[in-house]
Amino acid sequence: MSEKHPPQHAGGEPAGRAQQPTPAAEETAALVSVDTAGGAMEPSAVPATAQSGQLPGGPDTLLRKIFTGSGMVSVLAVLLALIIGGLLIASTDKQVATTATYLFARPTDFLAAVWNAATRSYIALFQGSVFNPRGNGVAAQFAPFMETLTIATPLITAGLGVALAFRAGLFNIGAQGQIIVAGILAAWVGFALDLPMGLHLLLVLVAGIIGGAFWGGLVGVLKARTGAHEVILTIMFNYIALYFLRYLLNTPAFQRPGESNPISPILDPTAVYPQIFGSQYRLHLGFLLAIAATVLVWWLLNRSTVGFEFRAVGANPKAAQTAGINVSRSTILVMALAGGLAGMSGVAQVAGTEKVLTDGVAATYGFDAITVALLGRSTPWGTFAAGLLFGAFRAGAVQMQIQTGTPIDIVLVVQSLIVLFIAAPPLVRAIFGLNPRRRKPARPAKSREAATTGGAA
Amino acid sequence: MVRVLKLELRGITKRFGTLLANDHIDVVVEPGQIHCLLGENGAGKSTLMNVLYGLYEPSEGDILVDGRPVSFRGPGDAMEAGIGMVHQHFMLVPVFTVAENVALGAEPTKAAGFLNLDETRRRIKEISDQYGFDVDPDALVEDLPVGVQQRVEIIKALVRNAKVLILDEPTAVLTPQETDELLDIMRQLKSGGTSIVFISHKLREVKAVSDTITVIRRGKVVGTADPAASTTELASMMVGRAVSLTLDKAPAQPKEKTFEVRNLTVIAPNGQHVVDGLSFDIARGEILAVAGVQGNGQTELTEAILGLQDRVHGSILLDGQELLGRSVKEVLNAGVGFVPEDRSVDGLIGTFSIAENLILDRYDQAPFAKGISMSPARVLENAKSRIEEFDVRTPSGALAAGTLSGGNQQKVVMARELSRPLRLFIASQPTRGVDVGSIEFLHKRIVAERDQGTPVMIISTELDEVMELADRIAVLYKGKLVGVVQAGTSRDVLGLMMAGIPPEEHVQAGKAADTTSTSTSDAEGGDHV
Prior knowledge:
Chain A has 457 residues and is an all-alpha fold. Helix content of chain A is 68%, strand content 0%. Chain A has helices at residues 5-15, 23-38, 47-50, 62-68, 71-91, 94-101, 107-129, 137-141, 143-167, 175-192, 199-226, 230-248, 285-303, 305-315, 317-322, 327-353, 365-375, 380-404, 409-422, 425-431, 444-450. In chain A, helix 10 packs across helix 17, helix 11 crosses helix 12 (230-248) and helix 13 (285-303) runs antiparallel to helix 16 (327-353). By secondary structure, chain B is α/β, with parallel strands linked by helices. Chain B has four domains: 7-239, P-loop containing nucleotide triphosphate hydrolases (Rossmann fold, 3-Layer(aba) Sandwich), CATH 3.40.50; 247-335 and 421-498, 3-Layer(aba) Sandwich (Rossmann fold); 342-419, no CATH class; 504-529. Chain B is 35% helix and 24% strand. Chain B has 19 helices and 22 strands. Chain B has a six-stranded mixed beta sheet, with helices on both faces. Chain B has a six-stranded mixed beta sheet with strand order 16-19-20-13-21-22, with helices on both faces. A four-stranded antiparallel beta sheet of chain B has the order 2-1-4-5, with helices on one face.
């Protein structure tokens, strides 16, 4: 298990630098400490933990902290996940195994092999997702990037749905079901109706958004009216949507004539998204709509009264209610909007990439959307960036497997590691020496003699 | 056996970035003394104590224990040196017993790692008996009243042989009776040889128990004071300017009665009538203070008026219009200004900016919003003028409200509610956890609102505040109105009313025991003459 050592070692050294907290951390500490004296506010009595940057006041649940923590942790989490992923790749590499047998005779061989294995795979990943220098002409060289954008499209919109709901204090893990319901409606409008160009596509889009909004809004209504927990509701609604879709695909209304497999007819050409850069790339109009959705969500959250209500309800429902905000209405509305955004992903799938409806219409986009929102810290543009990153992972993984034989699954491992590190910000900060906490309470007896001079700062 | 300990802070400086929280502070805590650190919220008292307790490292300066410089790298070190701290918010596990809480962190064990709580129980009994704490080691902490929980915290420190006890704003969470009990305990601890560092901004308590008073203002020691100094003197030192502790208030000029409550009953989810058949009214230009021990229906009364309660019967009329059955938004839009009792729970959103908090109930109205589009520039503009008008101490309105001190947070809530034309103003605990300088200011604003001809309703559990602000006083007991009396009614009568005895009965009882009654009310009622 020699590959275990480097991260530990790498962590050990910078941890020493934790002595000098960043100016930003210092400032937060200052604010918190000033408030400590304020007294009546939330506990500042445990300043050692309060120093980690969270402001007193408001119900700061762990989940909330994870979702809305600093963007820096996101970046570092990705970096860390990539490093560990690289080590995992190396551990399965033949060259590494060979050199390991004479590790002590020539350790440089071993280290070189590790480096080569990891970098080769990541270069392949990069070439498969951003830019392939071996491509035939500029168009082919940029093809991987177009593919990344294509895969990112449903991730972004569904991620926005999760992020938006989270800002209003709701943990929407029902994007999967919302995508499916949207897909069902959009696909049906797409293949069953016969309408002129433009209008047909518009109707497909509207149908999908309404489908998702309905499925999400229903959760909101149940939550607001009965107090049922949205996590349970959305999980169950995911199942209902999936099995309902499977049922539909075996009915004459949805099954392709003369086909025994559960697959729908192909959508009319008037009902599909046009390809933005011509037929050579799969990239479709849905990506532009995803950008528009990101702008819209940003505006909604930061510049509109509706977003103000959402954020208020999310941050302190009691204060929001006292200020006259209708919490029930916000819950329903935000779930409907979140569903509508996830619905756009459903449309992107049936009208953009797949052009048919199968029971795999949502793939795992609905669940990946949670990770995307998490990584994007529930901000619109953060989610957008995280969607692009995950799109790149997906697009590049194939190329990586072809070029280097590294299994696609390694990308899933990296994704999972990202979630893991984001869920443990103190771990990431400790590894990179960013902890504002100067020191851990060391063994008293020893330390007392050592530091009579007081603070070094 | 009693080890006394002299604690000295020499030139303690603590910087956070550019902010100087403590500036060369010198404090000497003599053995067996109650040393008070007096200062407004945000003056740097708590930072200083956190330095002393090992939670912060000082940027400069030394801590000396019995003349020997020490350096604490954590609370563990401080405890070992004989320093104990009782935080304002208790560090207790609610579902544990007293003994378990006390043992926590230094659990005595038998062979094979089994807990040995008998030893802890014995120590708790011992300390409890010695100081008259009256704490049962086997009671669950969550079942104990706040005052007793605080004693558990003190026991925790004493079990660890604390010779210096730091009490950080210990009375903020206590009722008046519990406060008196705590002051007694402090005196007993002192006579038992424990020194106490008492952090407070409540002058009456400080004067009552302190041996020495060090006044801190803006991170600096501005001087030491004698406990015999007058309250005005102490207050002026603390705030840095002359403060008047008695409110200058012209007699009320009540006009027509525009706010009427008739037979109001609020039923709690458990079926209990938490507000029971209340009827009262308030005239324009008059302050009605609702007094009573906490938990006698005050919260439910205000929530019912605002539309936050579900099962309400009766009638609430404002300008002849029924408020009952309307949504919170409609009530607010009808001109009701409301300052909730706990700003951090329902008055403010800590993570929102000050500017956003200043429009929390008007975010969707002109000039802040047009349709659903908000104007951040207008919101900030509004914040600028409110911050100036209400003297909120903050570098910028864009900062999170949670970064403000308690007094400044309260100013934000007050500024929000008082900055629009009102038909009724309700303030619940308007100055809870607020420092002296801000109390004066907030009280003036409330009176100013009255003088503009708004009916004002104040709900307060602090009798001082009620007596200072009220034109008439209504006393609640178990959801019922004990009576409404004029301002100037003696503390005794009000105290008995708060225990449920109507004023008429008291007058009769008073006649029977005439001599005692007059002598006590003389002492209290002096300032009314």
